[in-house]
Predict the structure of MFS transporter.
Amino acid sequence: MEKLVIRTAKDIENFVDAHPSGKRTLLLTFVALGGIFVDAYDFASLGVGIVQLRQAFHLSPAQVGLITAIMALGACLGGVIGGRYIDRLGRFKILIINVALLVISAIGAALSVNFEMLLIFRLLMGIGVGLDFPVALSYVAEIVNKRSENASVGGWQVMWYVAASCSGLAILPLDSGIFGEHLWRFAIGFGAIPAFIILLLRYFYADESPRWAANNLPLSKAAQIVAKTYNIEVEVIPGHEQVKAKSSGKLAILFSPRYRLRTLLISAICITQAIEYFSVGFNLPSISQSIFGNTMDNAILGAIFFNLFGIAGASLGAWLSGKFGVRRMAIFGYAIVILSLLLFSMSHTPLLMAVLLALMIFGHSIGPGQGMTLATLSYPTELRGLGSGWGQGMARGGSIVGFFLFPLLVATSGMASTLMWVAVVPLVGIVIALFIRWDPDRLPQEDLRGAKTSVS
């Protein structure tokens, strides 16, 4: 068995940076990113049985929109406010708390007896989702070696599109008619099952992030975590203890001179990619119906078909970002999205429209869809939860805009004009990414591994 001698916290960080990835690391990565699967399902689940839900609670169009928006608002709050607690309390506690919240909120929403009760549990579900993204990605970034960072953290997007596809497969039998007026309850409540499985896996297999432990716990305790995480023998020989970096937990630090430009770039990419995805990608079922025919099967199967291109783009993007950088990949992806949207808006044949929509999803996932990867890898350990949480908050803010922007523009201007307007969003993203030339791999290690974190 491999033996590691630890004298200081820096020895732990050096080991994590250089160690070869093994089965244990892959398992922990899957367990952490498994929550993303639940997140994607929870966001999509309410679309099933919306007719029955509207009838059950006699909802107005505004109330239906509020149920959708409240989850995005909760995710925004969970990311921005929860980021400081991810850094303060540690990764493991939040990994458990947030997925437990997803289990409770899914069951509570499914059992809701009125509109207000459903609204409360959808808000709690959103908070759980908003917490899960930054803590899961932070955890993955802090257990894998330096060579695998981009590919491993970028794997979250692959998980999202796999979940979106699997959600459609799960929804097909639910839509068979056997659930009747309770269809929406089964669709939402089903999300508690994978969430509970992830909860058990995290509780029994995961532990604290070695990097966070090295920065916040006694050396002996951090060494125990390293031994369990990587299944190695560890010997502690106390040496000169370094002064451990501490974050104030205040968002203002992200806009201090050291971090300001990268935070602005992260904000721009996260907002713009969310607007373009939640305007178009989130409406794949309805767009699929307009292309393939107005049936529920066409809506679900069409969305699954297009999400397969998301899986391909996300997989390729996670690999290429390690070679070219997330920012450059975002620029490349933005260009594909713009071209696809403009050509789609001028197309009239179903086959060409399907090809262009698939290309748009591919371009989004290979490039700007990796905004959360950039947010996670751009800050040192003591700020990673805060920075990643900020990126999640910006993405959810963009998603709220997309939720309302797309149907409003379609109703007033039509599909073709709407897609031309949506194409402006990635154009803004390209311009900002060209001017702010930041990529995590460009800076020396001390900037990402324990830099001074006081507000200048």
